[in-house]
């Protein structure tokens, strides 16, 4: 714990893009029910522009941010991949540094860690 009330979190975000709210709910709710994520944020639609099979594609997507223990991130990523409709889903781990102690403790408690 540092002087300003922050502690090392040993937590990570998984940044996941999904095609719609239905899939966002499947990914977020399932990961939480399985105790692989403490909570999730679903961000509003954005436009994704990318190349796929030689064509430039454009579609709306949502972002799901899953909060998990760093030690569980790879298990959560595999679970998301298994429940995701894309052939190549975007699943990126972002390790977190410090966080405010009460919130970090709550996150860890949701995961049983």
Automatic annotation (TrEMBL):
Family, per entry: Belongs to the CutA family.
Any matching Pfam family: CutA1
Name the record gives this protein: Divalent-cation tolerance protein CutA
Organism: Thalassospira aquimaris
Lineage: superkingdom: Bacteria
This protein's encoding gene: cutA
